[in-house]
Automatic annotation (TrEMBL):
Name of a matching Pfam family: Sigma70_r2
Family under the similarity heading: Belongs to the sigma-70 factor family. ECF subfamily.
UniProt xrefs under Gene3D superfamilies: 1.10.1740.10, Winged helix-like DNA-binding domain superfamily/Winged helix DNA-binding domain
GO molecular function: DNA binding; sigma factor activity
Species of provenance: Rhizocola hellebori
Keywords linked to the UniProt accession: DNA-binding, Sigma factor, Transcription, Transcription regulation
Protein name: RNA polymerase sigma24 factor
InterPro entries: RNA_pol_sigma-70-like, RNA_pol_sigma-70_dom, RNA_pol_sigma-E_actinobac, RNA_pol_sigma70_r2, RNA_pol_sigma70_r4_t2, RNA_pol_sigma_r2, RNA_pol_sigma_r3/r4-like, WH-like_DNA-bd_sf
Transmembrane stretches, start-end: none
Domain of life: Bacteria
Domain RNA polymerase sigma factor 70 region 4 type: 104-155
Organism classification: Bacteria, Bacillati, Actinomycetota, Actinomycetes, Micromonosporales
Domain RNA polymerase sigma-70 region: 13-78
GO biological process: DNA-templated transcription initiation
Encoding gene per record: rpoE_16
Length: 178
């Protein structure tokens, strides 16, 4: 294995799980999350030798992951499948780590439309600013703010909670999936 491959392998070992968790929060399906993560890292590997800013790798992978997710959601056959409440299945490793908590939030997140879900995941799980989220999604900061407000309203409604409690649960979700 050459030095370039070793660097890529080390980066994947360090960030692969986090990106997979991000993908899962976006799509709500561990198998699709694996596919999205593999797609993102495969695209990164193709350009690895040309990457000059190693500090921007997370943003690049996250952007590819997000675009792959949104492309997947646009496919007509994806619209035929809906996530039923109570049907969220946790990865066994995640189930062990979470201890059964956070399932309600994951199920509620599955109800949020994909674009709003992407904004919520990037803002509250990936800790991106409004500007960084807008850049990742290729939209305006105003769009990010409105999608955040709509997504949070949908999330609160799905959870049946009001106000800060859903935000506390969003923070908890980040802690248990990190």
């Amino acid at each position: 294995m050459n030095e370039t491959d070793s660097e890529f392998t080390a980066y994947y070992a360090a960030r692969g799980r986090t990106m997979r968790n991000t993908a899962y929060l976006l799509c709500g399906d561990w198998h699709l999350a694996e596919d999205l993560t593999q797609t993102a890292f495969a695209k990164l590997y193709r350009v690895w030798g040309r990457v000059q800013r190693r500090d921007a790798l997370d943003g690049y992978v996250r952007r590819v992951l997000l675009r792959a997710f949104l492309d997947e959601r646009r496919k007509p056959w994806r619209r035929e499948h809906s996530v039923e409440p109570g049907s969220a299945v946790l990865d066994p490793a995640a189930q062990e780590a979470v201890g059964g908590q956070g399932v309600e939030l994951r199920e509620a997140l599955a109800v949020v439309p994909s674009r709003q879900r992407a904004v919520l995941v990037l803002r509250f799980w990936a800790d991106l600013s409004v500007e960084q989220t807008a850049e990742a999604l290729g939209c305006s900061t105003g769009n990010v703010k409105s999608q955040t407000a709509r997504g949070l309203a949908t999330l609160r409604e799905a959870l049946g909670h009001q106000g800060a409690k859903s935000m506390k649960e969003a923070t908890y979700l980040k802690e248990v999936t990190s």
